[in-house]
Amino acid sequence: MKKSIRKFSFFVVCIGLLSSLNADDKVYKFTMATTWTETATPLIDSAKNMADMAFKMSNGRIEIKVDSANKHKAPLAVLDMVKGGQYDMGHTASYYWKGKDINTLPFTSMPFGLTSPEQYAWFYHGGGMELMKKVYDKHGVLSFPGGSTGVQMGGWFKKEINTLDDLKGLKMRIPGFAGEIMAKLDVQVSNIPSGELFTSLEMGTIDALEWVGPSMDISMGFHKIAPYYYTGWHEPASEMQFIINTKKFDKLPADLKEIMVNAIRLSAYDMYIQNYDMNAVAWQQMKTEYPNIQVKTFAKPIMDAMKKANQELRTEMGATSPLLKEILDSQDVYMKKVREWTKMSDYLYLKDNL
Question: Which Gene3D superfamilies match (predicted)?
């Protein structure tokens, strides 16, 4: 068990004792499908930690069996499986369902959008949870934040990118909405399976790729062949997602519903801080073993072009869905408010102490 979870042991025991008072001894069993494999730390850890906490806090009245993608073999069908009742719960990411429902996209992360602390504040205090419920109600599931990777890096590049011309014709693995932005800048975008990425980069099938950050990049080995590591822009707050079949959840007594929701919230936070630590440790190892790695930021003309393409695509998408526009507008309004504090606190503190 992670150290940060141990600190909550007293809290867990107290809730477990309280939940056992005046409660029946019925055990409620759930199955959870994840998008992640058994080795995808810390993503898989969030699901397992949630199940463990729910069991302890409920005094054994909630049992959740977690199946990784190694077991169910359908990592990008988790929403369908939970909707259809093959699984009761899922741990995944909302933007995977963009093709099924475009309104799900913003609940993971948007380019140039909210940071993780800002986005958590939007979820729980800025109307984000209510908007997410509006989107997922029609799918018959409840959705909750499930742990953040924080700012994801902009990718590994074999050559330095100095101008927009350097991007033209560049072959890059960058899927999803970010890939659409890069395609508008004449990048040749592809979405190669994870197991083929290292070889594709090594053999020149692609010139660059984005993955996550040091915590998960290090095991992939990209730093061994692509020396330019660019900072992030496309996923500043990549939030994972817990989903629960609504009918299954509604069968729980009130005290167990509260325990489920609080176990989700705590495990999400724990994944965020776990990944933060893993990034720090992995980066120290990377730069020590491969001192030729150069951390780069994209030049302002490139960033400006990305922002322009991003806004054009957002406008196009918002025109197709009033609900999506409502969600994006909500995030924009909240960011204008919260970013002032982010600048005053984190940004100026770091600016004056680096």
Answer: Bacterial extracellular solute-binding protein, family 7, Periplasmic binding protein-like II
